[in-house]
Amino acid sequence: MKYAYQISLSVFSYEHEDINSVLESFLGFFPFNLEENKVILKNTRASGFSDKKIEIFEAALAKDSLIKQFINNLLNNLSEVQKGQLIQQAGSRLDAELNFFIRFDKDSWIKDRKLFLTDSGKCFHLKISVAAFPRKREAALKIINDLFGK
Prior knowledge:
With 150 residues, the protein is an alpha+beta fold. It has a single domain, classed as 50s Ribosomal Protein L5, Chain: A (2-Layer Sandwich). Helices cover 37% and strands 28% of the residues. A 5-stranded antiparallel sheet has the order 2-3-1-5-4.
């Protein structure tokens, strides 16, 4: 079953953080090599409040086989409680374009390689563009329930 037609992941790295740790952790979300699979790792530099330097890492997956591997890896790293929480909150995490959003605590993934759901800004941002047919909210919510209810 096709769950998504695109997956995007991003993270902000602030100047007081070890950029190599942030990048290594970002790449740890992917169970394959981005470069070998021709996935572009976008690196943008920006200035935050008080001109603090920020690096933004982003990658987007559109190839079905890579999306499937990513999702399987994600599901293997989530607890049953977290999957249940995502199902329970599906309505508020799904936007009008049928994009499903999840935030993962940055520190726990960097330090321990453990995924924890968070609402804070210090996180990895995951956007799953749900492959719902017909393109209706109800169909997307059913797919989300199937995905995390496995």
